[in-house]
Known about the structure:
It contains six helices and seven strands; from the N terminus they run H-E-E-H-E-H-E-H-E-H-E-E-H. It is of the alpha/beta class. It has a single domain (25-148), classed as Glutaredoxin (3-Layer(aba) Sandwich). Strands 2-1-5-4-3-6-7 form a seven-stranded mixed β-sheet.
Amino acid sequence: MRILAPLAALCLIMAVSVVSFAQPAPPPTLVQADGTHVEWKEWLTEHGTTAVVIWGSWLPEDQQDIKRLAKIRRTAKAKGLSFVVIAIQEPIEASREVLGSSGLPWLHDRHGGMLKHLLVYQVPALAVIDNDGTVLGRLEVDSGALTRWSGSN
């Protein structure tokens, strides 16, 4: 019996630790293409429900991704959604170099706070997020993902 109590306590501590790791981090402050800072919650309030792509220019085949992202943006617009690319874990100059001339709206997240906030484990990632910050759906990053999305995920 003496062994069971410490073992049960250890199991409880481990269970609480796992749950705490699954909690999203607070939303980060992001940098807009013009260099100004914006709170993620403010940005969502202004733009409404948004298709968000977490992305980095360091990903393989980033130029092909730009074409795919442009298709996702058109689909988002057709569904009445805003669209934004959040460039993560790179200097803003790298984001500007690739995204600056793409015509895509983008935000910069130097340290990857959005990965923790949205609980993203693989990049690129696509999520639909409402203006309150609730994730309505997590989708594959392909040009047909939003077309297939029913909004009830």
